[in-house]
Design brief:
The chain folds into two domains: 66 residues, no CATH class; 213 residues, MetI-like (MetI-like fold), CATH 1.10.3720.10. By secondary structure, it is mostly helical. The chain has a two-stranded antiparallel ribbon with strand order 1-2. The chain is flat, with a radius of gyration of 26 Å. Helices cover 76% and strands 1% of the residues.
Length: 297
Protein backbone atom coordinates (compact mmCIF):
# COMPACT_ATOMS: atom_id res chain seq x y z
CA UNK A 1 0.00 0.00 0.00
CA UNK A 2 1.51 3.29 -1.05
CA UNK A 3 2.13 5.97 1.55
CA UNK A 4 0.30 9.16 0.76
CA UNK A 5 2.51 12.23 0.86
CA UNK A 6 1.69 14.85 3.51
CA UNK A 7 0.84 18.25 2.15
CA UNK A 8 2.08 21.50 3.63
CA UNK A 9 -1.38 22.27 4.97
CA UNK A 10 -1.60 18.88 6.71
CA UNK A 11 1.89 19.28 8.17
CA UNK A 12 0.96 22.71 9.52
CA UNK A 13 -2.24 21.28 11.03
CA UNK A 14 -0.28 18.47 12.69
CA UNK A 15 2.19 20.99 14.13
CA UNK A 16 -0.65 23.13 15.48
CA UNK A 17 -2.30 20.08 17.02
CA UNK A 18 0.98 19.01 18.64
CA UNK A 19 1.58 22.54 19.92
CA UNK A 20 -1.92 22.69 21.43
CA UNK A 21 -1.42 19.32 23.11
CA UNK A 22 1.98 20.35 24.41
CA UNK A 23 0.65 23.64 25.80
CA UNK A 24 -2.38 21.91 27.33
CA UNK A 25 -0.14 19.33 28.97
CA UNK A 26 2.16 22.00 30.41
CA UNK A 27 -0.79 24.05 31.65
CA UNK A 28 -2.26 20.94 33.25
CA UNK A 29 1.03 20.16 35.01
CA UNK A 30 1.36 23.71 36.35
CA UNK A 31 -2.27 23.78 37.48
CA UNK A 32 -1.82 20.48 39.27
CA UNK A 33 1.35 21.79 40.94
CA UNK A 34 -0.39 25.00 42.04
CA UNK A 35 -3.37 23.09 43.43
CA UNK A 36 -1.06 20.69 45.28
CA UNK A 37 0.94 23.61 46.72
CA UNK A 38 -2.24 25.37 47.86
CA UNK A 39 -3.54 22.16 49.39
CA UNK A 40 -0.30 21.60 51.31
CA UNK A 41 -0.02 25.25 52.33
CA UNK A 42 -3.69 25.45 53.35
CA UNK A 43 -3.15 24.67 57.06
CA UNK A 44 -0.25 27.14 57.29
CA UNK A 45 -2.26 29.91 55.56
CA UNK A 46 -5.21 29.20 57.84
CA UNK A 47 -2.96 29.40 60.93
CA UNK A 48 -1.40 32.68 59.80
CA UNK A 49 -4.83 34.25 59.21
CA UNK A 50 -6.30 32.85 62.43
CA UNK A 51 -3.46 34.33 64.51
CA UNK A 52 -4.71 37.85 63.69
CA UNK A 53 -8.45 37.23 63.98
CA UNK A 54 -10.75 38.65 66.61
CA UNK A 55 -12.62 36.26 68.87
CA UNK A 56 -15.99 37.22 67.39
CA UNK A 57 -14.68 36.52 63.91
CA UNK A 58 -13.24 33.16 64.90
CA UNK A 59 -16.20 31.81 66.85
CA UNK A 60 -18.88 32.56 64.26
CA UNK A 61 -19.30 29.36 62.20
CA UNK A 62 -20.83 31.32 59.33
CA UNK A 63 -17.64 33.30 58.74
CA UNK A 64 -15.10 32.27 56.10
CA UNK A 65 -12.04 30.87 57.96
CA UNK A 66 -9.64 32.03 55.22
CA UNK A 67 -10.55 35.74 55.22
CA UNK A 68 -10.83 38.48 57.80
CA UNK A 69 -14.55 38.94 58.31
CA UNK A 70 -13.73 41.55 60.98
CA UNK A 71 -10.67 43.80 61.16
CA UNK A 72 -7.42 42.01 62.00
CA UNK A 73 -5.83 42.47 65.41
CA UNK A 74 -2.25 41.80 66.65
CA UNK A 75 -3.40 41.37 70.27
CA UNK A 76 -3.08 37.58 70.29
CA UNK A 77 0.45 37.65 68.87
CA UNK A 78 1.39 40.30 71.43
CA UNK A 79 -0.11 38.14 74.18
CA UNK A 80 2.14 35.26 73.09
CA UNK A 81 5.27 37.34 73.71
CA UNK A 82 4.18 39.36 76.75
CA UNK A 83 2.09 36.91 78.79
CA UNK A 84 3.80 33.59 78.07
CA UNK A 85 7.39 32.32 78.12
CA UNK A 86 7.43 31.71 74.38
CA UNK A 87 10.92 33.15 73.85
CA UNK A 88 12.26 30.90 76.61
CA UNK A 89 10.58 27.89 75.01
CA UNK A 90 12.05 28.77 71.62
CA UNK A 91 15.55 29.22 73.10
CA UNK A 92 15.34 25.87 74.91
CA UNK A 93 14.24 24.19 71.68
CA UNK A 94 17.10 25.79 69.73
CA UNK A 95 20.01 24.92 72.01
CA UNK A 96 18.71 21.43 72.76
CA UNK A 97 18.28 20.78 69.04
CA UNK A 98 21.80 22.00 68.23
CA UNK A 99 23.36 19.83 70.97
CA UNK A 100 21.36 16.77 69.92
CA UNK A 101 22.46 17.27 66.30
CA UNK A 102 26.12 17.49 67.36
CA UNK A 103 25.86 14.41 69.57
CA UNK A 104 24.07 12.53 66.80
CA UNK A 105 26.80 13.31 64.27
CA UNK A 106 29.54 12.52 66.79
CA UNK A 107 28.23 8.98 67.29
CA UNK A 108 26.41 8.23 64.04
CA UNK A 109 29.21 9.13 61.60
CA UNK A 110 31.88 6.80 63.07
CA UNK A 111 29.35 4.01 63.62
CA UNK A 112 28.01 4.26 60.08
CA UNK A 113 31.54 4.38 58.66
CA UNK A 114 32.59 1.28 60.58
CA UNK A 115 29.52 -0.68 59.52
CA UNK A 116 29.74 0.44 55.88
CA UNK A 117 33.49 0.24 55.30
CA UNK A 118 35.15 -2.36 57.54
CA UNK A 119 33.42 -5.37 55.92
CA UNK A 120 32.91 -7.39 59.07
CA UNK A 121 30.47 -10.35 58.96
CA UNK A 122 28.38 -8.81 61.72
CA UNK A 123 28.03 -5.42 59.99
CA UNK A 124 24.74 -6.16 58.24
CA UNK A 125 22.87 -7.71 61.21
CA UNK A 126 24.20 -5.04 63.56
CA UNK A 127 23.05 -2.27 61.21
CA UNK A 128 19.58 -3.79 61.04
CA UNK A 129 19.53 -4.15 64.81
CA UNK A 130 20.45 -0.49 65.28
CA UNK A 131 17.65 0.55 62.95
CA UNK A 132 15.12 -1.67 64.74
CA UNK A 133 15.85 0.27 67.93
CA UNK A 134 14.37 3.34 66.23
CA UNK A 135 11.11 1.46 65.57
CA UNK A 136 10.40 0.93 69.28
CA UNK A 137 7.60 3.39 70.21
CA UNK A 138 8.57 6.10 72.73
CA UNK A 139 5.45 5.23 74.72
CA UNK A 140 7.15 1.93 75.66
CA UNK A 141 10.47 3.49 76.64
CA UNK A 142 9.71 6.65 78.58
CA UNK A 143 9.04 4.78 81.84
CA UNK A 144 12.41 3.01 81.82
CA UNK A 145 14.20 6.11 80.54
CA UNK A 146 12.63 8.15 83.33
CA UNK A 147 14.47 5.91 85.81
CA UNK A 148 17.71 6.69 83.98
CA UNK A 149 16.97 10.43 84.03
CA UNK A 150 16.23 10.36 87.75
CA UNK A 151 19.31 8.23 88.39
CA UNK A 152 21.64 10.80 86.84
CA UNK A 153 19.84 13.71 88.54
CA UNK A 154 18.45 15.39 85.42
CA UNK A 155 14.74 15.25 86.24
CA UNK A 156 12.89 18.51 85.48
CA UNK A 157 15.92 19.74 83.54
CA UNK A 158 16.29 20.58 79.88
CA UNK A 159 19.48 18.51 79.91
CA UNK A 160 17.35 15.39 80.26
CA UNK A 161 16.25 15.93 76.65
CA UNK A 162 19.88 16.23 75.56
CA UNK A 163 20.46 12.86 77.19
CA UNK A 164 17.37 11.08 75.84
CA UNK A 165 16.81 12.45 72.33
CA UNK A 166 19.97 10.91 70.82
CA UNK A 167 18.47 7.48 71.60
CA UNK A 168 15.93 8.35 68.89
CA UNK A 169 18.11 10.20 66.39
CA UNK A 170 21.29 8.09 66.41
CA UNK A 171 19.83 4.73 65.23
CA UNK A 172 18.08 6.04 62.13
CA UNK A 173 20.99 8.40 61.39
CA UNK A 174 23.41 5.47 61.44
CA UNK A 175 21.19 3.57 59.01
CA UNK A 176 20.88 6.57 56.71
CA UNK A 177 24.60 7.34 56.71
CA UNK A 178 25.50 3.69 56.12
CA UNK A 179 23.65 3.74 52.83
CA UNK A 180 25.20 7.03 51.81
CA UNK A 181 28.77 6.09 52.75
CA UNK A 182 28.47 2.94 50.66
CA UNK A 183 27.81 5.21 47.69
CA UNK A 184 31.20 6.93 48.17
CA UNK A 185 33.87 5.07 46.16
CA UNK A 186 36.52 3.36 48.25
CA UNK A 187 39.15 4.52 45.77
CA UNK A 188 38.86 8.09 47.10
CA UNK A 189 39.64 6.97 50.61
CA UNK A 190 42.41 4.60 49.56
CA UNK A 191 44.07 7.33 47.50
CA UNK A 192 44.08 9.63 50.53
CA UNK A 193 45.72 6.89 52.59
CA UNK A 194 48.32 6.37 49.87
CA UNK A 195 49.08 10.09 50.07
CA UNK A 196 50.02 9.66 53.73
CA UNK A 197 46.80 10.21 55.63
CA UNK A 198 45.67 7.85 58.37
CA UNK A 199 42.29 6.15 58.10
CA UNK A 200 40.83 8.89 60.32
CA UNK A 201 42.46 11.59 58.23
CA UNK A 202 41.20 10.03 55.01
CA UNK A 203 37.73 9.82 56.50
CA UNK A 204 37.71 13.47 57.54
CA UNK A 205 39.38 14.89 54.44
CA UNK A 206 38.03 12.68 51.65
CA UNK A 207 34.87 10.90 52.78
CA UNK A 208 33.10 13.51 54.89
CA UNK A 209 33.00 16.20 52.14
CA UNK A 210 31.52 13.69 49.69
CA UNK A 211 29.01 12.57 52.32
CA UNK A 212 27.88 16.12 53.02
CA UNK A 213 24.37 15.67 51.53
CA UNK A 214 23.80 12.73 53.84
CA UNK A 215 25.08 14.75 56.80
CA UNK A 216 22.64 17.54 55.92
CA UNK A 217 19.82 14.99 55.83
CA UNK A 218 20.81 13.80 59.31
CA UNK A 219 21.00 17.37 60.65
CA UNK A 220 17.55 18.27 59.33
CA UNK A 221 16.04 15.01 60.54
CA UNK A 222 17.55 15.22 64.03
CA UNK A 223 16.64 18.86 64.59
CA UNK A 224 13.04 18.60 63.37
CA UNK A 225 12.48 15.44 65.39
CA UNK A 226 13.90 17.13 68.48
CA UNK A 227 11.74 20.22 68.00
CA UNK A 228 8.53 18.21 67.57
CA UNK A 229 9.01 15.45 70.17
CA UNK A 230 6.33 15.52 72.88
CA UNK A 231 6.14 12.37 75.04
CA UNK A 232 9.64 12.46 76.54
CA UNK A 233 9.48 16.19 77.19
CA UNK A 234 6.10 15.88 78.87
CA UNK A 235 7.37 13.04 81.07
CA UNK A 236 10.76 14.48 82.06
CA UNK A 237 10.31 18.27 82.26
CA UNK A 238 7.66 20.12 84.27
CA UNK A 239 9.08 23.60 85.21
CA UNK A 240 7.94 26.14 82.58
CA UNK A 241 11.42 27.67 82.38
CA UNK A 242 12.88 24.34 81.24
CA UNK A 243 10.23 23.43 78.66
CA UNK A 244 10.71 23.52 74.87
CA UNK A 245 8.07 24.75 72.45
CA UNK A 246 6.39 21.37 71.99
CA UNK A 247 5.14 21.26 75.60
CA UNK A 248 5.56 24.85 76.84
CA UNK A 249 3.19 26.45 74.35
CA UNK A 250 0.22 24.10 74.90
CA UNK A 251 0.83 24.14 78.68
CA UNK A 252 0.49 27.91 78.92
CA UNK A 253 -2.09 28.43 76.18
CA UNK A 254 -4.49 25.60 77.06
CA UNK A 255 -6.00 26.11 80.50
CA UNK A 256 -8.68 23.59 81.26
CA UNK A 257 -11.34 24.02 78.61
CA UNK A 258 -10.07 27.47 77.58
CA UNK A 259 -7.96 27.51 74.41
CA UNK A 260 -6.05 30.65 73.45
CA UNK A 261 -6.52 29.57 69.87
CA UNK A 262 -5.13 32.55 68.01
CA UNK A 263 -1.98 32.62 70.13
CA UNK A 264 -1.53 28.88 69.58
CA UNK A 265 -1.68 29.42 65.82
CA UNK A 266 0.74 32.34 66.06
CA UNK A 267 3.22 30.11 67.91
CA UNK A 268 2.80 27.47 65.20
CA UNK A 269 3.62 29.95 62.45
CA UNK A 270 6.57 31.51 64.30
CA UNK A 271 8.15 28.11 64.88
CA UNK A 272 7.42 26.71 61.43
CA UNK A 273 8.73 29.64 59.36
CA UNK A 274 12.43 29.48 60.44
CA UNK A 275 12.51 25.69 60.20
CA UNK A 276 10.90 25.77 56.75
CA UNK A 277 13.32 28.49 55.60
CA UNK A 278 16.42 26.55 56.71
CA UNK A 279 14.97 23.33 55.32
CA UNK A 280 14.47 24.89 51.88
CA UNK A 281 18.02 26.23 51.85
CA UNK A 282 19.31 22.65 52.00
CA UNK A 283 16.40 20.94 50.24
CA UNK A 284 18.45 19.62 47.30
CA UNK A 285 21.12 18.15 49.55
CA UNK A 286 18.49 16.78 51.92
CA UNK A 287 16.71 14.93 49.10
CA UNK A 288 20.04 13.69 47.71
CA UNK A 289 21.01 12.38 51.12
CA UNK A 290 17.78 10.49 51.64
CA UNK A 291 17.46 9.09 48.11
CA UNK A 292 21.07 7.99 47.75
CA UNK A 293 21.07 6.56 51.22
CA UNK A 294 17.88 4.64 50.52
CA UNK A 295 18.99 3.32 47.13
CA UNK A 296 22.53 2.37 48.05
CA UNK A 297 21.80 1.13 51.56
Amino acid sequence: MAIQPVTAEQAAALRRRYTRRHVAARVGVYLAAILAALFCAGPFIWSAITAFKQNRDLYNPENNPFVFNRPATPDHVTYLFTDTSFLTFAWNTLWVGVLVVLITLLFALPAAYALARLDRPWSGPLGIGIFLVYLIPPSLLFLSLSRVVVGVGLQDSTWSMVLVYPTITIPVSVWLLMGFLRAVPKDVEEQAMVDGHSRLGAFLRAVVPLAFPGIVAVVVFAFTLTASEFIYTLAFVSPPGQMPVSTGVPTQLIRGDVFFWQSLQAATVLVAVPIAFVFNLFLDRFIAGFTQGAVKG
